[in-house]
Every structure is written in C-alpha cells, then in structure tokens.
Design brief:
The complex is a heterotetramer of chains A (about 500), B (about 475), C (about 100) and D (about 625).
Chain B: H1 8-30, H2 36-55, E1 62-64, E2 69-71, H3 73-100, H4 104-123, H5 127-145, H6 152-183, H7 188-198, H8 204-220, H9 229-236, H10 239-265, H11 273-291, H12 297-318, H13 321-348, H14 364-367, H15 369-383, H16 389-403, H17 407-433, H18 448-466, H19 469-482
Antiparallel strand pairs in B: 1-2
Chain C: H1 3-23, H2 27-52, H3 56-86
Helix pairs in contact in C: 1-2, 2-3
Chain D: H1 7-22, H2 28-55, E1 62-73, E2 76-85, H3 86-109, H4 116-135, H5 139-157, H6 164-195, H7 200-206, H8 212-229, H9 238-241, H10 247-256, H11 261-268, H12 270-273, H13 277-300, H14 304-324, H15 328-355, H16 373-387, H17 393-407, H18 413-438, H19 446-450, H20 457-472, H21 484-494, H22 509-536, H23 540-547, H24 549-556, H25 561-608, H26 616-636
Helix pairs in contact in D: 1-2, 1-4, 2-3, 2-4, 3-4, 3-10, 3-15, 3-20, 4-5, 5-6, 5-10, 6-8, 8-11, 8-13, 10-15, 11-15, 13-14, 13-18, 14-15, 14-17, 14-18, 15-16, 15-17, 15-20, 15-21, 16-18, 16-20, 17-18, 17-22, 18-22, 23-24
Classes of the chains: A mainly alpha (about 500), B mainly alpha (about 475), C mainly alpha (about 100), D mainly alpha (about 625).
C-alpha cells in the first residue's frame, strides 16, 4: 500500500479546489467551471485506489491517519474507512463531477460562489464519512450545513429562504443535542477509563450503562433521524428539495441524507448497543410508517420534485428498517440501498432539473406527452424511474429485497407492511411518469422541447451504468462491506450479552 | 500579604496605558491638526508595548501595592484580550473618528483609559482595586457612549448607561462595605480565607454583601435581570464603542467576577450555584428570544451579547479548570467575532447614514461581497457553527458545564442556541438571499483600517476555530494556576 | 453607640436613595439620590472601619468620594447636553430607544 | 453443453441492446431480421439442449449453469444460475418457438410504425425476461424474470403511449401485477426464512420437513403472485385492458407466454403444493371461478381482442384448475397447446384488424370469410382447437384437464361439471365471434371496406405454422396410448414427492372415454348454438339479451369489477392520501408544529421585548427587584 495520505487527499482536494476558485475573477466563468470539474473529477480518481486496494477481508479501519489535533481535549485528526464508509465515500466522489457538470448552464448568478459551495460541501461530506474522531465528525457534520444552506438559499427557487432556514434550523435542532451527548459520553468514558479522548474507537469500545445509553441514543438518534429524514421529522426535506437548485437536490438526496443512516450505523449502534435494542422496535415502526406514508403522500403531489422528495422519505425508510433488523441481509441491504438511493434519486433530480431548465416548471400538469418529443430523455427517465421503484435487474431491487428479507427474519408484520410499499412505489412513480411523459402533448411549449444534449447524456450515463451494474451484479459491492457488517453485528451481540449478566453493570471494553 | 511588596512589572500595563492616555490628550491639545493616522499609530504602538508588558507576568506571578494588584497568568491573559479588543476598536474608529468627530484625540484617550481600567480590573486582587478599575472603565465609557454629542440617541445611551452604572455602583459598594464589615478587609485573599473557615453562608450579612456584589457585576456583564440597559446603550453608542463595550467591558466584568468567584469558591459548593444557574438560564433565554424580533442590527447584536453572557456563566458555574479556561477562550473568541460584526456595520456606515437596519443589509452580497462574507462568517461564528471559533468556544464551554454535571443547563443553552440561529441566519438571508431594494442609502467608501481590523478578526476566528489546540492548552495552564 | 445604629441609618439612607432613583422624574434629583446612596455606603464603611479597628474602610471612603466627584462631572455634563438637545431633564421623557 | 444455457437468454438480450441503442440508425428490415434471428438462435440453442437432455436418463435430466453470485450476505446467497430440465425445456421451446413466429409476424404488422425499433427491442427484452423466468434456478432469478416480463408488458401495452388510455392500461397492468408480486415476494421471504435458501432443489427437497401451515402459507402467497401475473380472480382486471398493446404483444405476452408464468411457477414448486391440500383447493377453485367468470363475460364482449383476452383468462383458469388438482403435467400441456392456438387467434385477429384499419369492434365486421381467406382459415383452426374438437390440440389438453379434475385425488365431480360447462361456453363465444366476423353481411365502414386486403406473407406464414401446430400439437400426449409429454415432464414433478399420491383415486378408462364424448358434444352444441344465433337467426341475440336484461348488463359491464375496485379502493385511497395524509397531517400537523413553534417563539419575543420599555427608571427598578429577589433567596432559600 502506498504511503500517501490518500484519504486526506480525497477529503481536502475539493476544498483546495474551492480555494483556487477564490482567486479566479468573476468573469472567467468557463474557467471556473472547468476548474471545478477537473478538481471534482480528480477527487474521484484519487478516491479510486481507496476502493480498489480496499481489503475486503477485514473489518478493521483502513487508510487510517491519526494526528494529534487538540491535545488539550483529546481530539485528534483521525480518519479511516471500513466497509461501511467506503461505499459512501465512493458515492460522494462519484456524484461530485456529475453535479458540477449538471450545473453547467443552470446557474445564472455568482457562479463562482456556487462552485465553491459545491466543492466545500464535498469536503464536508467526505469528512463526515471518514472521521473516526467524534469531535472531528461533528465539525464536518455541522460545517457542511453552511454551504448547503447557501446553495439552497441563494440559488434556489421561489421559497428558497424559507426552505434554507428550515433546513438549517431543523438539522441544528438535532445536532446541538447530539453535541451535548457527545460531551457527556466523552466525560463519562473519560472518568471511567481515565483517558479523555474523542476517539471513536475509544468511545465505542467502552460499554456504558443502559440508562445512560438510552439518553445518548436519543440525542444522537434525533440528530440522525432528522437528517435521514425519518417520519415524522421529514418535513424539511420536501421544502429543501423543491427549492434547492438541481445540483443541491442531487447532493441532498444523493449524499446528505445518507449521513443520517450512516450515523446510526457508525455511532448509535456500536456505541449504544443496548439502547439500540430497546429503541429498535420504535424505530422500525417509524421506518415502516415512513415507507408507506412517504409513498402515499408522494402519490398526490403535483410537483415532480416534491414527489421525488417524498419518495426519498419512503426509500430511506427501507434503509432504516434494514439497519434495525440486525440481520446481515437487512444491514447490507440497507447499505446498498443507501448507494442505490443516491444513484437513482440523484438521477431523478438531475432529470427533473433538465426538464426544468427547459420549461421552468415542475408541475405535472404542465407536461404530458413528452415521450414523443424527447425520446432520449424519456429513456433515461424510464430507467431511473424503474430503478426507483425497485425493478429486479436494476439497483433498487437489490437493496429493497435484502432489507425486506432481513426484516422478515425478525419481524414478519413490519416486513409485510413494508413490502406493500413496493406496490405504492410503482403507483406513484408510474402514475407520475404517465402524466408527464405519456398521452398527447397538450401544451404548445412542450412541442418545442429539445432532447438531451451531449453534456446531459454524459451526466446520466455513468449513473445508469451503475444502476444496472448493481442491479445485475451486486456481489462486488456487497462483498466490500460484508466483513464490516459482520463485525458490527458481532459487536452488537457481544455487547448486548455483556450487559445482561447480573452484577456486571459497567464494563470497559478492551481495544 | 507580608510587608509591602511592590513589583513595577506587575503594574506596567496599567502604567503604560495611563501614560499613553495622558500623552494622547496632551498631543491632541498641543497639535490640534495632527494627522489622526499618526495619533492612531502612536496609540497602537503604545498598545503593543502594553501588550508585551502584560505578557511579562505570564510565567510567574508578581505583586504590587502590597497584594492589591496581582499580575499573574490570569491578568496577563485578560490584559491581552483587552488590548486586542481595544486595538481592533481603534482600527474600527480611525476612519469613523475622522469623519464624524473632530475630537479624535479625546476619543482615543478615553479608549486608552478604559483599557487601563480593564487591566486594573483583571489584576486587582483587592475589592478596592477592582472598584477603581471598574470606575475608570465605566466613566470613560460613559463619555465614549455619548461621544456623538449632537446625536439624541447617543446622548440617551450615554445618559442611561451613566445613570444605571452609577446606580449599580452603589449596590456594588454597599456589598463591598458589608463584606468589609464582616471580614475586616477588602483583600480577596483574606476574604477567601474567611469563606474557607466560615463558609459563604457563615453570616447572613456576608452573604448579603456577596449578593450585592453580584448585582454590581451582573450589571457590568449584563445578565438577567440587570441586563435591560444593554440594548439601548449599544444601539445609541458609536458602533466601535458598542463593540468595545460588548467585548472589552464585558470581559473585564467577567475577569473581576471570576477573581471574586474563585475567592468565594474555596468553600463548600453551596449557596450561590442555584442563583447563577437561574440567572444563566434566564439570560440565555431572554437574550436569544428577544433578539428574534429586532430589525436593528446593533440592537440585535446587543441582545445576542446578553445571551452570550449567559453562556459564559456556565463556565463560571462549572468552576472547574475547563470552565475557567473555557471562559477565557470564549472571551477571546467573542472579542474577535463581536468586534468583527460591529466592525462590518462601522465599515459600511457613513456620517449621514448608520448602516444598521436589516433592510440596509439587503443584497449586500452583490454590492459589497467582502463585507457580506465577513458578516456571514461572524454570524455563523456567533451562532456556533464549525469550523469557526465560535463553535469551538461554545463546545469547550459547554463541555465544562457537562463535566460539572449541569447537563440541563447545557441543554437549555443548546436549545437557545438553536433559537439564536434564526436571527443570525436572518441577517445572512438578508445579505445573500434577498435582492437589493432600489432606494437604499449608499454604503460608505472603502475604509482600509476598518477592513484590516475586520480581516484580522476573520482570520482569528478561523485560526482559533481550526487550530485551537495551542490556546486551549495555554488557558488550561492558566486555569490550573488559578485553582 | 452600638454599630447597628450606624448601619441602620445607612441602610435607611441607601433605601431612600434607591426609592428616589426609582420615583423622581427630574434627572438632577435622581442623580442626587445616587449620591445619597454612595454616601450611605460611605457611612457604613466608616462605621465598619471603626468596628473592625482598621483604616481600610476609611481609605476606601476617600476613593468613593473621588469616584463620585468624577461621576458628578460626567453626569452633570451629560444632563446639560441632554437639556440642550431635548429641553427636558425628565428621565421618563428620555426614551427614544426601547424594545 | 450445459455451460451454454446462458446463451438462450443472452441472444434476445443482445437483440434488445442492439435494437435499443442503435435502432434509430438501422432500417426496419435489419431491425426485424435481427430481432427475429436472435429469438431463433435462442430457439436453436434450446433445441440442441433439449436433445441433449433427452439423451439422459429421465431421472437425471437436469442441466445447471451457474454464472456468478448475484448477491450474498450472511447466510443468504443467490446465484445467477440457470436450470434446464424437462419443464424448463418445454417452456423455453414454447417461448422461443412461438416467440420467434410472433417476431416474424411483427415485421409485417408493425411495418411503418415510428416505434419499430423500440417495438423489437422491447419484444427481445421480453423474451429475455421470460427466459430468465423459466430458466432461473432459484426463486430470485425467477422473480427477476417475473418482474422483467411485467415491465415489458407495461412498456408494450403502453407502446402507443400517446393515447392516454393505453398508457393507463400499461400502468394498471404493472400495478396490479405488483400487488401480486407483493405476495410472491413475501412468499420468497418466507421460503428463505424456513428453508434458508432460495434454490429450487434445496427448497423443494426439504418441503416435506416443514409443518403444513408453513407450506400452505407459502403456497398461497406464491399463488397471489400467480393470480397477478396470470390474471386470475381477483387480479385479472388488467388483462382485458392490456389489449391496448399492439396485437403481436397480446399474442406473445398476454396469451402465449407471460400470463402462463403463474402456471409455470406452481408447477415448478409443485413439490410444495402437493403437500398442502388447502393450497391446491384454493388454486383449483380460483382457477375454476375465473374460467367461468371470464367465459361469461366473453359472451357479451364486442371487441375482438377483448373476447380473446377473456378467453385467455378463462383458459388460464383451466390451467390453474389442472394444477389445482395436482395434474401439473396436464397444466403445462394445456399451457403449450393454448400457446399455439391462442397465439394463432390473436395473430389472426391482428390480421383482421390489419385488414380493417385497426377496427376491433366485431359489430363492424362480418363477411370477411372470402376477402381474407388465409386469415379466416387459420382463425377457423384456432376456433376448433380452443373449443376442443378432436383432433385439434385443444381437445387433448382440455379433455385431460376435465378428466383429471374429476379423477384426481384432489378433484371432484363439481370441478368436472363446471369445467365442461365452461368448455361449452368457450365454444359458444368463440364461434359467436368467428361467425360475426367472417360470416353474414359485411357491416364494415365504407371507407374501411375499400382497403380490405389480405396480410403479407410475413404475417400469414406464421399464422399457417401456428395453425399447423394447433392442429397436431395435441398429439404429443394422447392418454394411455402415447403419453410422451407426461412421461417427459413427470420426473420433474415426481422428483420430491411420492407418486402414489397421484394415482387416480377413481374412474376408469371407460369413464374417461365417456367424458371425452360428453365434452365433444358440449363443444359442438356450443358451436351449433353460435351458428344458430349469429348466422341463421341474427335477431335472436338481441331478444335474449333484452329478455335477461339485468344479467346481460351485468355481463356486458364485466360484473362491474373495475368500477368496484375504482370506487372502494383506488378513489378513497387517493383521496385519503391527499386530503388527510398530505394536506392535513403533513402540512397542518407536522409543519404546523414546526412553523407554529417558530411563530410562538416570535410572539413570545414580542411580549418579552416590552420589558425594555426605554424608561431608565424601569431598568433601575428591574435591578432593584433583582436584588430583592436575591435577598429573598438569602432569607427563604
């Protein structure tokens, strides 16, 4: 393995790109776009070795880097990836250049600021997925809000300010409580072990009493649940999605939401295993409600973007359900579903964005019969739609199937209810598709639509490739995460039994 | 204290600043046409010397006036913060003074005297020196607040500040008198010894004195229910002075409070914690909630500054190493971000039009991007969003609260921080997400000195936010030396 | 005489001062009431000084007086400036800034 | 050789990719030939494999071709693996054989359509998916194909998407199928839950070891899937609407292949079904009811394709009846013969429509017998075959079903009686249509009449081939004398079960012959009645209709099932989602709380800010009150 700090390079490359952008004049728009594209593409390329030289046979963290940062409080710059974060990182770097490309002609004011926001956002997201120090994680977690806030608030639609502020405050509600919880865990573990450190592994390997776990789980969980977003904390999402510019929606759906589910996997489960088991039924029920509720509400939306936004609620419900099934299938399914949702919903937003750029409307009733006018667009839209409704052979199915399979092993009722979500997904997506694409063209404007440009095709093709790839051959992706999930489940089991033994209230774990 | 110890270095910062102040007055009178830049430079050089002088006592504590003044790590750190704040204030003022007020030499001199008062407060270990520092500071600020003599608002601000300040001084003095009556001394060391043996509740009269002192300090740091003056005064005072009051003066108040509280603490932990708890909670809530409805940015910042005082009280309450070092780190950070925020207002204001309403800020991002970005950075920092220093400071301070077991208070702090987001973001919204209205008054031309001050503040909140390690360690050393 | 007598007188004076500040409209009278409070404190200090048998209290009184003098200078100047501007010294009429 | 099974589905996939991606650059000719050739290649591969299979002992007739692991986590693993045994062989041959003919036919039928390339790529994709379905070696691959064919069905029903009704029909098909798939999926979960695997062999061989309720539940869940795909009660409603698609699609997907997937699935998992009498009875009864219901609806329908569609539903009901009484080989046999004659009839109907400018109303036809002779003759063959006239294919398969319905240990006299009645109805409605379309006066619109013409060779040749198959296809399985088909399939069905259970419990050869005779008589009666009513005394139908007006209206409106579903399920569901979940709960409650808390904060701020009254004495008062409060604490605290 190479000695280069590959992970850090991947994380900070976009930020460096953003810094470079600062020095370009406002008028050099073409150059700015090229630079942003190159930087994000480069980030993807740099991240490829992470994937290819990732060792799938171990659950240990790889590409670790650990430097002292704030010694006084025991916070380190500690990054590393395992099977759980690997795919998230790859998804982020993969979507990076596509997002830049998608914004090529869509941004009409202060392009530079927009590109800088995108790149900084990318650094923030990568940092979240790579951090192995909770303090560092928290910094990235929150820091990433700022660029997203600007992306929505400056380059968004009509009600962008409302959406941006709602997004920001909603998310902060959770994360500030998480901050208190982090502090509490830090001091508690510090007192018990004598080592005050924010290091993830240090905190994870210490088993706290159940009572404390419960509170901390709730604080962490709320923050993650809002980000996911789980029913009933989801109402920021439709607003944010609808108002955000295309690139923003793609990142939001593609990566940002995953940070919530990732948080559960990375922190809530291993750090508070007993609380996890206590709250699992509640969360599973909420997840199922989310699946169905999201689908039902999506069905009656008049705005395509809003529809897709609610569909995210539904899809992320599957992820949560899978994670909290505590089975291999459920967890791996949930993880792969995270990737899938990133790809297919990301693509859906791209597609909606493309049509919006042409027609400046997203209302379903303004369309109809587009299929005849723009066949290439239709093809992509169709594939992505099918992926979104979980058609076997495309990626969505693999995730949903495994999640449901896993859930079924632990809770039949919930699994059955969740499975019915598969029906509703078809209902709302296909109904929307029919109203937008099929039938006769009713509006004059729609007769002048132009089909996708080469650039737009170039944005969509890579996504479609992965949609099909994961759909027909998911094993390479599942294989990467298998060991990590194994070890997570083993930890959960071990910790659960450790506390159950009487007279053994607090057990410090060895590293 | 045995004998009459006297170390010149201990009072060097105070002496240097006092001499500087007189020098500025004399220079102003002697050379009425002296270029204000030159005078500003002289002041800044003086500050630099005072800064270095106050660093001298970092490594070992020095006494002066028989222990009435102690120069130690604590006073050294605080003096540095004061001088930094004052330096930035001067930076903000250079152009302002030129345009608006002819008496710049008096203005500078008053700032210098106020700073001198602050250093005295930080190094005073006798209630007498604390009182003197406080009054030196206050009287200078009364005048500075009303420096725009032709402006009704400024006069009103000055008047209110003066009246209430004097009123509060009365309470403070009465408290000092009662404590003196019980302990027979105004020396903090002796008072501390009394508290150690008798306990703070040992005598009701002593406790009454303690409470009256709290009233006095509470007024200075503007916490509930002694906070009502702050918004009016900040609104009316010249913007740089508002910044100076919100940072330097508040920091000085906390310095004195900390000295005092540490003396009170060497006993059983009972009696005053509940009071501070309630005051802190109410201050955070009131400050943040009322700020929601402000359309005047200066006034909004005033409420925000009240709320921040509430946060800092968590550190006082925690009373542990992290708490003390947290307060100092917080005050340092707060000095930068708050002066920065006021600085942006100052940067944009002209003699005719003070740039203070929310609608003034509409669409600023396109017309004055530097100002808008700086203001946004300060707002995010005040709101406590990483990676800016405001977050680090808050995190550190809250951690002290959690460590000391005040989890619920920290949760209140966190919830009110959430509320505060709304108004901090509100300003960002105006600047970045709204388009400029047609008939908005023009902004001021570029003011290099102000710009430099703002840039320094921005840089500082970035560095303190991303690489706080060194500072946190330093302040922890400091706090350990206090305990 | 027992020290309590002095203290009670001082407390009464202080309270009168406080009440005066709270109730009088004329800024000058309000200001004088503050002076009354300070002098009540001075009385207390002197009494205590005698009681605890050291001079710290009496020294303190001198400083209080100096500070009070400085405040008088600033305060009266302010009141004059305000009177020039608004032609009133009634404190309840000086309320441009609120809420 | 078994390593090449993957070629069978691969060829159509290739065709799909080429036509789909490059279609717009290719000429119709190339597209058509390419599309058909790919299916033919599959067919050839299948034939080769078939003969190789027959070389083996009957017990060992199984090729498995594992390509790679699709997904594996924990103890779960699913391979992309194909299975070529007797059952798959029959299915593959039917799918590719009939499919090939329909592809060829489509070259003519779709000529000039702007979506020509799209059409062929979809047809190829369908063939690919169908082949996955029948070749899959585990439930998951089967499900992959299962949903894949559903997708193609959706795409092809809505092929002329500019007509909103067609697009709607496509949606309906997909969604109704999804409801079925819901059952199927849960069935799969349950299978994995109890068997720990989804491989056919692993699951079926262990079926006997599970408690009966598990088996019954699994079977019923799978059957829910089957009712969707194979258009059985209560999920049959999509199939008649599916006739919106181009006629070759109806022939291939909605008659010959896809809709039979349910039957195939039950046969594939027969080892489980035979363990559950409940499940079998449900299958049989649903099949029978569906057959009856669809047949009665078909009597009144006026749309040539809808008649055929209901006929398909009805015939599928037969197959389920067969499967439900444990006569799996018979079900597959009927599946095959049905594929021949129903594909034939659809294509012939397509040819009629082709001649009449896409007219589908049989009231606007008539007297076409001589104008489109080839079409007529082939249609005629199909009519006889479906009516079960000796020696056409339908006779053997249908008769076998009726006999098994009676004689099987799971059968009963009622099954037989109703089945025979349906046979009569089938003959009647089918010949009603044939007589109305081809005989009597021409009722064709004048303009249309000018253009009546026989279809080109590329369409008629497939018709002739299919007609031939419909004629002789039944001969592969003549009970007692030449039961080759059954013998070929039985090893598959008997592999994991005790054959003794399937010994006919009652009945004799003599009885069987009697039953055959009865059904022949019934069929002829049906045809005769049709002739009387629609050729000789054309006023009779109207009279009868008005004499039983209520019944007629009920039948004509298809028992109002669509309306019922719309009223009690679809509409309320949308309404509740919109008015309650979205407009009320999401907007009013959740967002109400979110925005409300902001508003409340704001009003609290509005109140609290009043404390800053501006009067300095008030501030002083607050200070004093604060001090007093502190003293209060001192005194009382």
């Amino acid at each position: 393995m190479t000695d280069l700090p590959l992970l850090s390079i991947t994380i900070f490359l976009p930020a460096i790109g953003a810094l470079l952008l600062l020095f370009l004049k406002d008028s050099m728009e073409q150059l700015q776009k090229m630079l942003a594209l190159i930087v994000s593409a480069l980030t993807f390329i740099v991240s490829l070795p992470l994937y290819f030289s990732f060792n799938s046979n171990t659950a240990a963290f790889q590409f670790e880097e650990n430097y002292t940062w704030i010694s006084a409080i025991g916070a380190n710059y500690h990054v590393g990836i395992d099977g759980i974060s690997l795919l998230m990182i790859m998804l982020t770097t993969f979507l990076g250049p596509l997002v830049v490309l998608s914004a090529w002609n869509a941004v009409h004011k202060s392009l530079k600021g927009f590109l800088i926001s995108l790149l900084v956002l990318e650094t923030g997201m990568l940092g979240v997925f790579a951090s192995l120090d909770i303090f560092l994680f928290y910094i990235f977690w929150e820091a990433m809000l700022i660029p997203m806030y600007f992306v929505i608030g400056i380059w968004g639609g009509q009600r962008r300010v409302y959406a941006a502020v709602k997004f920001f405050i909603y998310t902060m509600v959770g994360s500030l409580l998480m901050m208190v919880a982090i502090l509490f865990a830090y001091f508690y573990v510090g007192e018990q072990t004598g080592t005050y450190s924010f290091d993830y592994i240090h905190l994870r390997d210490f088993l706290m009493p159940v009572e404390i776990q419960k509170w901390l789980f709730l604080a962490f969980g709320l923050s993650f649940a809002i980000k996911v977003p789980m029913f009933p904390f989801h109402t920021w999402l439709p607003d944010a999605h609808v108002e955000a510019p295309t690139a923003g929606s793609v990142i939001l759906a593609g990566v940002l939401l995953k940070m919530g589910t990732y948080g559960f996997l990375r922190f809530c489960l291993p750090m508070f295993p007993n609380a996890t088991f206590i709250f699992a039924p509640l969360i599973s029920i909420l997840a199922v409600i989310g699946i169905l509720y999201g689908a039902w509400v999506a069905m009656v939306q008049k705005d395509v973007k809003k529809l897709v936004a609610y569909s995210s609620v539904s899809h992320l419900g599957f992820v949560m359900l899978g994670i909290f099934s505590f089975t291999h299938q459920g967890m791996q399914g949930g993880l792969i579903q995270m990737v899938n949702h990133g790809l297919s919903t990301g693509a859906l937003f791209l597609i909606v964005g493309m049509i919006y750029e042409r027609r400046h409307t997203r209302m379903i009733e303004d369309f109809g019969g587009l299929a005849r006018q723009i066949p290439i667009f239709t093809t992509f839209f169709m594939i992505v739609t099918l992926s979104s409704i979980g058609l076997p052979g495309l990626n969505g199915f693999v995730g949903e199937f495994l999640v449901l399979l896993g859930t079924f092993q632990t809770n039949v009722t919930l699994a059955v209810l969740a499975t019915s979500g598969v029906i509703f997904a078809a209902v709302y997506m296909l109904w929307m598709f029919k109203r937008v694409m099929f039938g006769p063209i009713t509006r004059e404007e729609n007769k002048r639509l132009t089909d996708l440009s080469k650039r737009e095709v170039a944005v969509l093709v890579p996504i479609v490739v992965f949609i099909v790839w994961i759909g027909v051959y998911a094993q390479p992706f599942l294989g990467k995460m298998e060991k990590s999930v194994d070890s997570l489940l083993a930890q959960l089991k071990a910790k659960q039994t450790a506390l159950v033994q009487p007279g053994n209230e607090i057990i410090g774990g060895g590293e | 204290m045995n004998g009459f110890e006297f170390d010149w270095i201990a009072i060097a910062p105070f002496l240097i600043l006092s001499v500087l102040g007189f020098a500025v007055v004399v220079l102003g009178i002697s050379f009425p046409k002296m270029y204000r830049g030159t005078l500003g430079t002289i002041v800044l050089v003086g500050f630099a010397v005072a800064f270095l002088a106050s660093l001298q006592s970092w490594d070992d504590a020095r006494l002066a006036f028989g222990g009435m003044i102690t120069a130690d790590k604590f006073s050294s750190a605080f003096s540095c913060i004061f001088i930094l704040g004052a330096t930035l204030t001067i930076g903000l003022s250079i152009n302002q003074v030129e345009e608006k007020y002819l008496l710049y030499s008096d203005y500078f001199a008053l700032v210098v005297f106020a700073t001198a008062g602050m250093t005295l407060m930080a190094s005073g270990t006798n209630l007498l020196t604390l009182f003197l520092g406080l009054e030196t500071l206050s009287i200078a600020l009364y005048v500075l607040a009303g420096f725009r003599r032709s402006n009704e608002f400024a006069l009103e601000a000055s008047f209110k500040y003066f009246l209430l300040g004097a009123f509060a001084s009365g309470f403070l003095l009465y408290g000092i008198a009662l404590i003196y009556g019980i302990t027979g001394s105004t020396d903090l060391t002796k008072i501390s010894a009394y508290v150690s043996s008798e306990g703070i509740l040992g005598s009701k009269m002593f406790f009454a004195g303690f409470l009256l002192l709290l009233v006095g300090f509470g007024f200075k740091i503007s916490v509930f229910p002694f906070h009502l003056w702050a918004p009016d005064v900040y609104q009316g005072a010249p913007t740089p002075i508002s910044a100076f009051m919100a940072t330097g003066s508040k920091a000085a108040g906390f310095a004195a409070l900390m000295r005092f509280m540490i003396a009170m603490q060497s006993t059983t932990q009972s009696g005053w914690q509940d009071i501070i708890w309630v005051i802190a909670a109410a201050t955070m809530i009131l400050g943040n909630v009322i700020a929601l409805r402000q359309s005047n940015v200066k006034r909004m910042l005033a409420y925000s500054s009240i709320a921040h005082a509430g946060y800092i009280l968590i550190g006082v309450l925690a009373g542990n190493t992290i708490g003390s070092s947290g307060i100092i780190f917080y005050l340092l950070t707060y000095t930068f971000m708050n002066i920065g925020a006021f600085g942006v207002i100052s940067y944009l204001s002209t003699a005719e039009h003070e740039f203070i309403t929310l609608s003034d800020f509409r669409g600023l991002a396109s017309s004055r991007p530097f100002a808008a970005i700086a203001m946004a950075a300060f707002m995010f920092s005040l709101a406590g969003i990483p990676p800016l220093a405001g977050f680090m400071a808050k995190f550190y301070l809250f951690s002290a609260g959690v460590k000391a077991g005040y989890v619920w208070l920290v949760i209140i702090a966190v919830v009110t921080s959430m509320i505060s987001l709304y108004y901090y973001l509100g300003l960002v919204v105006q600047m970045f997400m709204r388009d400029k209205e047609a008939d908005v008054a023009a902004t001021a031309p570029l003011q290099p000195a102000v710009m430099i001050a703002i840039s320094i503040a921005m840089l500082a909140i970035l560095i303190l936010g991303i690489f706080p390690s060194r500072w946190v360690s330093l302040f922890q050393d400091l706090a350990r030396s206090l305990m | 005489m027992p020290i309590e007598y002095y203290l009670i007188v001082a407390a009464i004076l202080f309270s009168i001062g406080v009440l005066g500040v709270l109730t009088r409209r004329n800024a000058i009278i309000v200001f004088l009431c503050i002076e009354l409070m300070l002098n009540a404190v001075n009385l207390t200090l002197v009494a205590f000084s005698n009681h605890v048998q050291n001079l710290d209290g009496q020294v303190f009184v001198f400083f209080v007086m100096i500070v009070a003098a400085a405040e008088v200078a600033v305060g009266l100047a302010l009141i004059v400036a305000i009177f020039r501007q608004k032609e009133t010294v009634y404190v309840d009429e000086i309320n441009l800034m609120k809420w | 050789m078994q390593d090449y099974i993957w070629l069978i589905p691969f060829f159509p996939l290739l065709g799909f990719l080429i036509n789909g991606l490059l279609g717009k650059y290719l000429s119709e000719k190339v597209i058509g030939i390419l599309g058909s050739a790919m299916v033919f290649l599959s067919f050839s591969t299948a034939v080769v494999l078939f003969f190789q299979l027959t070389q083996l002992d009957p017990e060992n007739r199984l090729f498995i071709n594992t390509l790679y692991t699709w997904m594996a986590t924990g103890s779960f693993s699913a391979d992309v693996a194909f299975r070529f045994d007797a059952l798959s062989a029959v299915m593959v041959l039917v799918v590719t054989g009939v499919g090939f003919l329909i592809h060829v036919y489509s070259i003519g039928y779709m000529h000039g359509d702007r979506g020509f390339a799209r059409f062929f790529s979809f047809l190829n994709l369908f063939t690919f998916a169908m082949l996955l379905l029948v070749l899959g070696n585990n439930f998951l691959i089967m499900f992959l194909g299962w949903e894949g064919v559903g997708l193609c069905s959706y795409l092809l029903i809505g092929f002329w998407y500019e007509n909103p009704e067609y697009a709607y029909a496509g949606n309906k098909a997909f969604i109704v199928n999804r409801i079925g798939d819901f059952g199927f999926l849960i069935g799969i979960f349950m299978i994995f839950g109890y068997f720990g695997s989804l491989n056919f062999d692993t699951v079926l061989s262990a079926a006997g070891m599970q408690p009966e309720w598990v088996i019954t539940t699994i079977c019923l869940l799978l059957f829910v899937g089957a009712t969707g795909k194979s258009a059985q009660i209560p999920l049959y409603v999509w199939l008649p609407d599916a006739m919106a698609g181009p006629t070759p699609v109806s022939a291939l997907i909605h008659a010959a292949t896809m809709v039979t997937a349910g039957v195939y699935m039950i046969c594939r998992t027969s080892a489980m079904y035979v363990l559950s009498e409940v499940a079998l009875s449900v299958v049989a009864i649903i099949g029978l009811l569906t057959a009856l219901m669809a047949a009665t609806i078909a009597i009144t329908s006026k749309d040539i394709k809808k008649v055929l569609a209901y006929s398909t539903v009805s015939q599928l009901g037969y197959m389920f009846l067969a499967a439900g009484v444990g006569a799996f080989a018979t079900a597959i046999f009927h599946l095959m013969t049905h594929a021949f004659f129903k594909a034939l009839m659809f294509l012939a109907a397509g040819s009629v429509m082709h001649a009449l400018s896409n007219e589908t109303n049989i009231d606007k036809m008539g007297g076409l017998k001589n104008k489109i002779g080839t079409t007529y003759r082939t249609f005629w063959v199909g009519g006889l075959a479906i009516s079960g006239i000796l020696p056409f294919a339908g006779f053997f398969s249908k008769d076998e079903i009726l006999w098994k319905a009676f004689s099987s240990p799971f059968g009963s006299t009622v099954f037989w009686a109703v089945g025979t009645l349906i046979a009569g109805l089938t003959a009647f409605y089918m010949w009603r249509m044939i007589y109305t379309v081809f005989y009597g006066e021409s009722r064709v619109d004048k303009e249309v009449a000018l253009h009546i013409h026989e279809s080109p060779k590329v369409m008629t040749v497939p018709l002739i081939v299919l007609a031939a198959l419909s004629t002789v296809g039944g001969l592969v399985n003549i009970p007692h004398y030449f039961p080759m088909f059954e013998h070929f399939l039985d090893p598959v069905f008997m592999k994991y079960i005790n054959p003794a259970a399937f010994e006919a419990s009652h009945g004799s050869f003599g009885l069987e012959l009697t039953f055959a005779a009865i059904s022949l008589v019934v069929a002829f009666t049906g045809i005769w009645l049709a002739k009387v009513m629609y050729v000789q005394r054309r006023e009779l139908p109207d009279k009868i209709a008005s004499s039983v007006k209520g019944l007629y209206t009920l039948l004509f409106n298809k028992y109002y099932v669509d309306e019922l579903y719309d009223k009690i399920i679809v509409k309320p569901f949308v309404k509740v989602s919109d008015a309650f979940f979205y407009a009320f709960f999401d907007v009013k409650i959740i967002d109400g709380i979110v925005n409300g808390s902001a508003k409340i904060m704001d009003s609290i701020a509005g109140v609290l800010r009043r404390s800053h009254s501006g009067v300095v004495q008030f501030y002083a008062l607050s200070l004093v009150v604060g001090a007093i409060a502190l003293f209060g604490y001192l005194i009382f605290g």
